[in-house]
Design goal:
The complex is a heterotrimer. Chain A has two domains: about 45 residues, no CATH class; about 210 residues, MetI-like fold (Orthogonal Bundle). Chain A contains eleven helices and no strands. By secondary structure, chain B is α/β, with parallel strands linked by helices. Chain C is an all-alpha fold. Chain C has one domain: MetI-like fold (Orthogonal Bundle). Chain C contains 13 helices and two strands. In chain C, strands 1-2 form a two-stranded antiparallel ribbon. The longest helix of chain C is centred in the N-terminal third of the chain and has 38 residues. The chains are: A mainly alpha, B alpha/beta, C mainly alpha. Chains A and C meet through α1, α3, α4, α5 and α6 of A and α1, α3, α4, α5 and α6 of C.
């Protein structure tokens, strides 16, 4: 679920210097481009298959051909009748809640760690680093029994906490790197001009750190949105509407011996928000991953 | 900057939604005296149109109209996942109030269930032949809800094409016929040993060799010599390519659908296969038929009778007991039993409904065979044994049957 | 920036220094609390559960001493599961890292349409691993999967519904295909991580090398690779952990079957949980220990400590 990334604010300048002016592509370049296109195609192919299969009419579902003879959109409309909408809502609650919780908790921690060398700072950072190694899969029995014993009002709350907890370390790590690279002098200058520390934080530092914040939050959101194992473990007892999308799609398997049509339609629908979010941060993914703080 | 702000605002809104998630699902008896019951039922349907969700929702709605203070929330789960999911619910203390599906004895053992007499006004109406099966320590907890029996279905058209003139009666027949069908490029015998219902298919072959999971005294005989021999036969059948490949990964519903498409020559089925054949739109009524299950030396005289049980969980004190009783009395009415049976081509579980169907040409013969039918063990250990059978018995036809059956026998003895 | 003064007036003493030590907790307290509750406490629960005797329905029936441990180690399938897990991790990570190095280099070059090509690489990252696994399972269907259709057209596959076409029914071919899927979903992240590393190296380093007369290959070996090392190690470590803990791929494609012949330690633990919670907890403990072992070995082998802040 969590991913470790050594991040620094956009070192856009460090990217390969762009040569101005156009050049006619040399044959070597063309070959390169073709190879890249072929590889890109391979990575997109399975998802194209997913969309195509979702569009197969039910009597052509088991037909042996690459493309169906007719295209049928009914899977995309009938899926809402199975209550898929509430699953989307539940996933939104979980991912949104987890992301908000991470924001509220990680920001102060990362800011303070970046600015002050307090006692225990190294320990804290090592703790953060260490917990990035842990994933719910490795500790499922413990997570399950613990949250069952808490007896929280709803498994959704449990899932918010679990997703937030496991993504927190990554968020702190990224934000710490971002805050570290924003010179403290900027805040000092603002405070000399009469601003409070919090005011300086809000008006100077936060705006500069927004790319990092957004990246961290979006990774958390996507991680929580796509999470399967803990959701499967904790929400089976809930009514179907109160389960996240991943669990519900998993249940299409074995249902009438695999309801492929709805399975793929649901997958396509569930992937759209993620693509939208990725679009938001695409430019920053490479910049944010620049090995600035990798020494 | 704007985009970042927008992101934060959107996420805050989402979080506000999240807080509404704390809408409690815990208190099912609210202050105005209304009760909510959670019903978890297995899905017998073959598609969204005849999903069991619809059947139960119909009953729930009619019941609610007659009893406005009680709401029943219906959840149906496919057979592949039913045991696993109910088990998880129980482990997570998210108990259902009523289940309709499978075994119950282990829950009774933990003291989680109401007795049948606590939640049914007329438990004597339940078919007496299943009363013992539904009992734990001489007290009835499992209420039979529906039953079925098995037969061997085969594709007459394919048989004719392959030059087979008579129905298979012995294992030898099955082998020779399957080999001929293989020559046509079809699957000779469909053998579902995947996790959906491996325990049923396995039992049919064990019965074919005069053996069972337990002996008459309740001792486990899973790795008896006859059972091992039965699986040796199957292993040879699979190895010769007379069945679909890797049966341990194939489920009953998938194979039934392939039978309906005319790709499989022979398969063990229940009356529930009939509507699937109809939906496949490939075979006409004249193209297939059913005969008694083939045994090692001749057709079986007794078949496998599967009984699915309803159970009521003690979950929320006595306030719910009255509501559960009210609902179950309502749901067990003959008209709903008959509706279920006609919908899914299964058999009833109450004496009154069975009497109503006795003269029906389709159901009558199956009903007559029921009292003599063989059933699954009703030991509390069955839950673990069944799970292991479902998951591992497929390897008995590709690996060493003695080893696999022996491992299951060990589990049975360990859990007893 | 002004450090908090460490000079204390003698009279203020204890209270003041206590406040000073506790002050950071205002900022980092919630983070520590959340991590402690969600990530660390389950470890304790897990250990405790492994010593309990638990009914399949989740009721604690008492202490079990080491019985769960001995039961687990007597499971006949455990050995296969452990070996398979090792193979799974080693092969997937090795192939992923090799491919990613190559792809990162490729996508670092300038060519028209580079941006779109890079975008395509994000697809497996955006779609959940579960969905990717399901598409592959669908494509490998013995009856009508696209892969089988393709192979049939090529003449490689003789007939549908045969053993040859049943990729996911045979343990070895199923494992191979699942490894393909694992590589497929791991490559995007690693490629991007290495791409970032490559871009941080900058042009001038190569200019200097070219001026000195170094060939492209030489420059690559002596300059690029060493500078890429940090990014490579980070990506490799993350990969190892992700692949080891991977659940959706195996669960959705074969459920670990037939039997347990395609299970890794993670799916095995999940299966055990249905009937034997105590043993499942021991498997969890084992998993946890293996992760820590892997990480420590890795850090040791790469002398990580010098690289942390």
């Amino acid at each position: 679920m969590a991913v470790v990334l050594e991040a620094a604010p956009g070192h856009a300048a460090a990217r390969s210097a762009a040569r101005p002016g156009r050049r006619r592509p040399r044959p070597g370049r063309i070959l390169l481009a073709l190879t890249a296109y072929a590889i890109a195609l391979i990575f997109v192919l399975p998802y194209a298959e997913m969309v195509i299969s979702a569009l197969r009419p039910s009597d052509e579902l088991l037909a042996r051909g690459y493309l169906p003879r007719h295209y049928d959109f009914s899977n995309f409309t009938s899926i809402w009748r199975t209550g898929f909408g509430s699953n989307l809502g539940t996933s939104l609650q979980i991912a949104g809640g987890a992301t908000l919780l991470v924001l509220v908790v990680a920001l102060p921690a990362a800011y303070f760690t970046a600015r002050r060398r307090f006692r225990g700072r190294t320990v804290f950072l090592l703790l953060v680093l260490a917990t990035q190694m842990f994933q719910p899969a490795a500790m499922l029995v413990g997570v399950e029994r613990e949250f069952v014993s808490f007896n929280l009002p709803s498994p959704i709350v449990s899932l918010i906490l679990v997703n937030a907890g496991f993504n927190l370390a990554f968020a702190v790590w990224i934000l710490n790197a971002y805050f570290s690279s924003i010179p403290a002098e900027l805040e000092e200058a603002a405070m000399v001009d009469g601003a409070t520390r919090l005011g300086a934080l809000r008006r100077i530092t936060l705006p500069l750190a927004v790319p990092g914040i957004v990246t961290a939050l979006i990774f958390t959101f996507i991680g929580a949105w796509n999470e399967l194992l803990v959701g499967l473990t904790l929400t089976l007892g809930s009514s179907p509407g109160r389960r996240p999308v991943t669990v519900e799609i998993n249940n299409y398997i074995g249902q009438y011996s695999i309801d492929w049509g709805h399975l793929f339609a649901g997958s396509v629908i569930a992937t759209l928000p993620v693509i939208a979010l990725f679009a938001l941060i695409e430019g920053k993914v490479v910049g944010g991953l620049t090995a600035g703080s990798l020494k | 900057m704007k985009r970042g702000l927008a992101a934060v605002v959107t996420l805050s809104a989402a979080a506000a939604l999240a807080l509404s998630a704390c809408g409690s699902s815990k208190n099912s008896v609210s202050s105005d005296g209304s009760t909510t019951l959670k019903l978890v039922a297995a899905d017998y349907g073959t598609g969204p149109d005849n999903s069991s969700q619809k059947y139960w929702q119909g009953i729930a709605d009619a019941f609610h109209a007659a009893n406005p203070k009680i709401t029943v929330k219906v959840q149906s789960i496919n057979w592949n996942d039913f045991d696993n999911q109910v088990q998880t619910m129980v482990q997570n203390h998210q108990y259902p109030d009523i289940t309709e599906g499978d075994y119950f004895a282990n829950y009774a053992q933990e003291g989680l269930l109401y007795k049948a007499s606590d939640v049914l006004s007329n438990p004597q109406n339940l078919l007496p032949v299943f009363a013992k099966l539904g009992s734990y320590q001489n007290e009835q907890y499992g209420m039979p809800f529906t039953t079925s029996s098995r037969a061997l279905f085969y594709n007459k058209k394919l048989f004719a094409q392959a030059g087979i003139s008579s129905a298979p009666q012995t294992w030898n027949d099955i082998q020779t016929d399957a080999a001929k069908l293989k020559g046509l490029g079809k699957i000779g015998f469909g053998l579902p040993l995947g996790s959906e219902e491996a325990q049923a298919e396995s039992l049919l072959w064990m019965l074919g060799n005069n053996s069972n999971y337990q002996d008459g005294n309740g001792n486990w005989t899973i790795d008896s010599t006859q059972n091992v021999a039965a699986f040796q036969f199957l292993k040879q059948l699979v190895g010769a390519g007379d069945t679909e490949p890797n049966p341990g990964t194939k489920n009953r519903t998938d194979l039934w659908k392939q039978f309906a498409q005319g790709q499989i020559g022979m398969i063990n089925g229940s009356p529930a296969l009939i509507p699937i054949i109809g939906q496949g739109k490939v075979l006409t009524d004249a193209d297939w038929t059913s005969v008694p299950i083939a045994g090692q030396s001749g057709p079986l005289q007794t078949t496998l009778g599967v009984c699915d049980f309803a159970a009521a969980f003690k979950n929320g004190g006595t306030s719910k007991q009255a509501a559960i009783k009210s609902f179950l009395d309502f749901a067990y009415q003959d008209k709903y039993q008959l509706q279920f049976d006609k919908e899914y081509d299964l058999l009833p579980a109450t004496t009154s409904a069975a009497d109503a169907l006795a003269s029906d040409p389709t159901f009558g013969p199956f009903l007559q065979a029921l009292p003599k039918a063989v059933q699954y063990p009703n030991s509390p250990a069955w839950a673990n044994v069944k799970a292991q059978i479902q998951h591992t018995i497929g390897t008995a036809v590709t690996d060493d049957p003695k080893k696999v059956l022996g491992a299951i026998q060990q589990t049975a003895q360990k859990s007893s | 920036m002004a450090e908090q003064s460490t000079v204390i007036g003698r009279g203020d003493g204890k209270l003041r220094s206590l406040a000073r030590t506790a002050y950071p907790l205002v900022w980092i307290g919630p983070a520590i609390a959340l991590i402690a509750v969600v990530v660390l406490w389950p470890v304790v629960v897990m250990f405790r559960t492994s010593f309990q005797h638990i009914s399949p329905d989740g009721f604690v029936l008492g202490r079990a001493g080491w019985k769960n441990y001995t039961d687990l180690f007597h499971e006949p399938d455990l050995r296969g599961v452990l070996i398979r897990t090792a193979v799974w991790v080693v092969v997937v990570v090795a192939v992923t890292m090799l491919l990613s190095v190559a792809l990162a280099q490729l996508f670092n070059e300038r060519f028209p349409g580079r941006r779109v090509a890079r975008w395509a690489l994000i697809a497996p990252w955006a779609a959940s691993v579960m969905m990717t696994s399901l598409v592959f399972r669908w494509a490998l269907d013995a009856n009508n999967g696209v892969v089988n259709v393709f192979l049939h057209d090529l003449g490689v596959l003789k007939s549908f519904n045969s053993n040859q076409a049943d990729w996911l029914g045979r343990p070895v071919s199923a494992l191979v295909w699942m490894m393909v899927v694992a590589v497929f979903v791991s490559v995007p992240f690693s490629t991007y991580a290495l791409l970032a590393g490559l871009q941080a190296i900058g042009e001038d380093v190569y200019e200097a090398a070219r001026v000195d007369g170094a060939s492209r290959w030489r420059a690559y070996r002596s300059i690029t690779l060493p500078l890429l090392r940090p990014a490579f190690l980070v990506a490799a470590l993350i990969n190892i952990i992700n692949v080891f803990n991977s659940f959706p791929i195996i669960w959705e494609m074969t459920r670990g079957g037939p039997g347990y012949t395609t299970s890794t330690t993670t799916t095995f633990m999940f299966q055990l949980k249905q009937s034997y919670i105590g043993e499942s907890a021991v498997m969890s403990v084992l998993n946890f220990g293996l992760v820590i072992l892997l990480v420590l070995l890795f850090l040791r082998a790469t002398r990580w400590k010098d690289q942390v802040d």
